[in-house]
# Entry
Amino acid sequence: MTIDLTPYLSDTGPKYLAVARALSEAIRQGDLLPGTRLPTHRQLADSLEVSVQTISRAYAQAEKMGLVQARVGSGTWINTLDDSRESEYLRGQEPRWESPTIDMSIAHPVCPPLHHMRFREALAQLAEQASPEVIAACRPIAGLLHQRERASEWLETRLKVPGDADDRVLCNGTAHGLMLAIATVVQHGDIVLTEALTDHGLIALSRTLGFQLRGIAIDDEGMLPDALDRACQRFRPRAVCLTPTQLNPTGATMSEERRDAIAEVLARHGTWLIEDDVHALLEPPGLTPLTARIPRQGFHVTSLTKSTLPGLRAGYLTVPRGQLHHTLPRLRATGWMATPLMFELAHLWLADGTVEELASQQRELLAERQSLAIRILGHHPLAARPSSLHVWLSLPPAWRAEELQQHAEQEGLAITTAVPFMVEQSPAPRRIRLSLGGEQDIHRLETGLERLASLLDEAPPPMMQIVY
# Structure
């Protein structure tokens, strides 16, 4: 094929980097679409009047950036959205607590030594007290009754999610619960609506299950009701997946008035709601979930992962009345049943108040880190909640997000651009997401924020000119 990269080429820096960045910009502008086959090395070299070696290095750099994929015998192709936007930490690397890189790229709660001690104490208590029912359980598929009853009481009193134990399904974290909810009501090829920027896990799930994901405009409270109404009329979606509380990556949280308006649109169109409420405990009590407004057409998913310990993958899915018999076969097919031992620990902590205690501590720890981020980076526009895991930072005019990410990596910093969270191909917001909980040592986090501030306060460093 023939492509024209000349409008995107710059005269500064090595030519191979200029070509790689031109590819990036052409993709961002939508002139190169996912799945496009690129010209051969020779063809592009001839059109740009550079050496084949330059194009080979440019394609290698673009592949390193996650923009393209070289297929043996087939050529070089623009990556699909999901392939090119997967974060590095999802690519199979083991966690390294003593890594020289200061990691502000991964959504992770703060886990101080006290949390680890409480976990060890709970495991010791379970070793003494856990019944054979917990150790040897292989049914019921939805989870052991006493665990679901305790969870149901907590969901109704603390999170205001209507239902009883027969409406609750225990699952291995929120991601598992979302998959079960979507698979219950969405078929291959169906259209599902979500926020224009949303969690990358949902984007990956759309490819896994084969449904069409469409992004709806958002503001600082999340999805816009009028935009949702128009999209429901146009697309007639099967379901709408929403994160009303601390949307990843922006931190947007809906007011009660916004939740009322969104629920009214969904009720009027009769569209299934799938509510991702994984950040519920990071907010003080008071917010009412969307599901409470339309319980007959709403699935609610939450977990303890983001508010206590990430390894405690205790997830809770509330299913609308009459849908459980559709959900349980999906649960059985994807894991038989959630791990009973982890839910026995969750049961213990829900009963003795540990969950709320750890969640309260998490809010305090994150508030301290949010204050630190505002002190160091507050002269740049940013959005965040007082107890959010993230900061959503606007960039100065001189910086592009991809360039900043590369220079930050050279400074030993891991950050995330908006690209992994984009539902559709469109110009990416000139923002980065900074996660504040991944570094357990707050002094390392402070060092990372200060290094980033130094980068942002300067113009991008010039590249050495290389002549071929």
Remarks:
- The longest strand covers residues 298-303.
- Residues 6-78 form a domain with the Arc Repressor Mutant, subunit A fold (CATH 1.10.10.10).
